[in-house]
Amino acid sequence: MTAETKSLTITLTGRAPVKIAKAEWPILAEAKWWDNQYESQANRTARLVVRQHEDGRAIVYGITTSQWQGESGARGGELFEAGASISDALYRVAESVGIDQGLVERCIADLPAEDLTKSPEPRPTNPDLSFTPIDVGFDLRRHGMVAVVPATTRSVAYDVVGERRIVAGDLPTIRRALEEAGYTVEVRS
């Protein structure tokens, strides 16, 4: 295998391309379309791809090609942090490169299924950490202070309009809930 096939440069929308190692960013979902019986004989093609790194970051990109005189293809994509909506990114990328929504739906259908057969873990009543004003002594958000979350944290209590809530799960889930509640979050190892 040559170095050329081990890496891939991906065109992104509105920013510089990124170069990735294919082995570190495997394809999570993909959908293709072409206007002929065989892809190799097509005059027009479209492709949507989702790649995801083990740390949760993802890249969604789309490519269209045309062999017709006066037509050109397009390339675009988005790189985003763990926890962002892959489905929303697929719609945005498809629109930016002129891909039909039907192909977006096929790519979404190719994503790994959410497993609903497992019973959810019970919600903790005694979280690892609390950022509620009653526990901290003041509201971090009102004082512009950062909520520092240790990397080992699995549950956090926080405030939403005077109501104590607990979020449990992985760090991206915890970070997302805290940021949606207005906290500035920093994760530390």
Describe this structure in words.
It is a single chain. The protein is an alpha+beta fold and 189 residues long. It has two domains: 3-110, no CATH class; 129-188, no CATH class. Helices cover 21% and strands 34% of the residues. It has helices spanning 3-6, 86-97, 101-110, 133-136, 171-180; strands at 7-10, 18-21, 27-34, 44-52, 58-66, 74-80, 129-130, 146-150, 155-160, 163-168, 184-188. β1 and β2 form a beta hairpin. α2 packs antiparallel against α3 (101-110). The longest helix has 12 residues, at 86-97. 22% of the residues are buried. The model has no long low-confidence stretch (mean pLDDT 89).
Catalogue the unreliable spans: none
The count of β-strands is 11
One letter per element, helices H and strands E, the order comes to: HEEEEEEHHEHEEEHE
Count of alpha and pi helical runs: 5
Count of spatially separate domains: 2
Rounded average pLDDT: 89
Q: Label the structural class.
A: alpha+beta
Q: What is the gyration radius calculated from CA atoms?
A: 21 Å
* Beta-strand content: 25-35%
Please state the overall shape, judged from the principal axes of the Cα atoms: elongated
The helix content, as a percent range, equals 10-25%
Short note summarizing the structure:
This protein has 189 residues and is an alpha+beta fold.
Key traits:
189 residues; 5 helices; alpha+beta; three-stranded mixed beta sheet; 21% helix; 2 domains; 11 strands; 34% strand
Give the topology, please.
Blueprint: H1 3-6, E1 7-10, E2 18-21, E3 27-34, E4 44-52, E5 58-66, E6 74-80, H2 86-97, H3 101-110, E7 129-130, H4 133-136, E8 146-150, E9 155-160, E10 163-168, H5 171-180, E11 184-188
Parallel strand pairs: 7-9, 8-11
Antiparallel strand pairs: 1-2, 3-4, 4-5, 5-6, 9-10
